[in-house]
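During the reporting period the student researcher (J.K.) took over the structure-prediction task from the postdoctoral fellow and processed the backlog of single-chain submissions. One of the processed entries is reproduced below for the supervisory committee.
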Amino acid sequence: MGPPLLKATTMQFLHNDLGYRKEGEIVEVSLASAANVRLMDSSNFSAYRAGRQHRYYGGYVTRTPWRHPIPSSGHWHVAVDLGGHAGRVGASVRVLPGILPTAREPSLSSVPSLYQGRSDAPPGSGMYEEDREYDVFISHASEDKDEVVRPLAHALSAAHLSVWYDEFELRIGDSLRRKIDKGLATSRFGIIIMSDTFFKKGWTNYELDGLVTRANTGEQVLLPIWHNVTKKQVIEYSPSLADKLARSTATHTVEEIAAEIVEVIRSRS
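J.K. obtained the following structure tokens:
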């Protein structure tokens, strides 16, 4: 059974934009007095603000603080109101880390030795850099990280895909070229965040050359995403890429694009 469905009326409310949050993180709301508390994703918050039907997590809270886990990774909002009644609303909101999984001893096969070398994979995974493969490689311009790339990478990772994304993989002292080459060579799918900035970058062109080469040999599948660009711009940059089926951030949310990518990758596994 899903969260309650309600039609809002125009009223004053306190709004806290939580931004991108991971599934399992805890939202904590402290109230000065009893009030309605709603935890909503972006689409339902827009409906709530416009006075339309919407779904939410929460209700009329009389005991403070109120806590609720983030149901799924994505962009979330908290709204606090008095339901149209007179009075003042006082509230503070913060996000707490979720409960960590139960600790366990790593298997002997996952412990690095002088012969096995070091691992950049999560502890206990038993996966070493030389053997690691990725479901997807994300090629992008750094200027697009906040708006598109970081939320997309976290959404794919939350869906248990192995993602080569520079913030996940690069450490101080790493060779940028070697790391990128490794990611390009061991990824089954290549996501290209095509933007005006992407077209002008040197590193993105280097990555794109590698992705196209592997796609032409059938070793990799390209998944283009258009961000604030027109088809004319894409054609001028690369006519062959303009012919590929793509998704645009102008018509789809990052969450919708991530869900579709997850479905495509799993269907081909």
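The committee noted the following: The longest strand covers residues 14-21.
J.K. will present the remaining backlog at the next meeting.
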